[in-house]
């Protein structure tokens, strides 16, 4: 059974370690804050100038002045701080962030990422993704494995304008967890009930498969 977006976020939350400073991109990555273990200390950073984000607020408890980079209302944890974008990107460019979690339209087998523009569609610009992919040393992508037409977004080579080159370390989709190695995508885990063959058929790039591929542990 393919995962939903919350389950993708829940799986990625297992990658977050005690003491990490983590930047969450817009889309699926923003959900990760809801699923991080409660017995570890993690600081979530948002590029619009927040350090110390918590889970999304319950309905009726939103504060329209406290938002993440995707303009969604958020909560903050005790000790949270607010600052301008220049200070925020100073943190990012100085590599103070331990883990960056981004969404993507496409990822290639050598770690290229395309996540900002579809030609012909109006966009405001690349935004903070450019700085994040240029500065971060540990990038995990949360994305859907195929598009609405059923075409693979896990590719030998990206077809959309690139955001960054050779920067992605790991990808988690509704079907699989894959690590990007010097030889390409290595299949690490599969979604519960999804076969290796299902993942191969949904993937345009070649997959490295070594031994039995375990199912993801979501809960």
What this model shows, in words?
With 219 residues, the chain is an alpha/beta fold. The chain has helices at 5-13, 85-93, 129-135, 196-201, and strands at 21-24, 43-46, 50-53, 76-82, 99-103, 106-108, 113-114, 139-142, 154-155, 168-172, 176-181, 184-190, 207-208. Strands 4-3-2-1-5-8-10-11-12-13 form a ten-stranded mixed beta sheet.
Head-to-tail CA distance between termini: 15 Å
Task: Work out the helix count.
Answer: 4
Secondary-structure element pattern, one letter each? HEEEEHEEEHEEEEEHE
Strand content: 25-35%
**Apparent shape:** globular
Structural class, please? alpha/beta
Task: Write out key terms for the chains shown.
219 residues; alpha/beta; ten-stranded mixed sheet; three-stranded mixed sheet; 14% helix; 25% strand; globular
Task: Set down the secondary structure blueprint.
Blueprint: H1 5-13, E1 21-24, E2 43-46, E3 50-53, E4 76-82, H2 85-93, E5 99-103, E6 106-108, E7 113-114, H3 129-135, E8 139-142, E9 154-155, E10 168-172, E11 176-181, E12 184-190, H4 196-201, E13 207-208
In brief:
The protein has four helices and 13 strands.
């Amino acid at each position: 059974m393919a995962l939903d977006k919350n389950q993708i976020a829940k799986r990625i939350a297992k990658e977050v370690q005690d003491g990490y400073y983590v930047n969450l991109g817009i889309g699926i990555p923003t959900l990760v804050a809801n699923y991080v273990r409660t017995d570890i200390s993690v600081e979530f950073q948002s590029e619009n100038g927040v350090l110390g984000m918590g889970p999304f607020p319950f309905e009726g408890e939103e504060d329209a002045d406290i938002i993440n980079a995707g303009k969604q209302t958020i909560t903050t944890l005790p000790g949270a701080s607010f600052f301008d974008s220049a200070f925020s990107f100073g943190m990012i460019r100085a590599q103070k962030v331990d883990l960056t979690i981004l969404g993507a339209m496409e990822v290639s087998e050598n770690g290229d990422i395309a996540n900002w523009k579809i030609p012909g569609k109006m966009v405001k610009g690349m935004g903070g993704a450019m700085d994040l992919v240029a500065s971060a040393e540990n990038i995990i992508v949360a994305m859907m494995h195929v598009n609405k037409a059923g075409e693979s977004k896990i590719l030998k080579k990206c077809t959309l304008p690139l955001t960054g080159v050779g920067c992605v370390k790991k990808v988690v989709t509704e079907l699989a967890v894959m690590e990007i190695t010097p030889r390409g995508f290595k299949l690490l885990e599969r979604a519960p009930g999804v076969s290796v063959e299902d993942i191969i058929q949904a993937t345009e790039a070649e997959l490295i498969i070594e031994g039995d591929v375990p199912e993801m542990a979501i809960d």
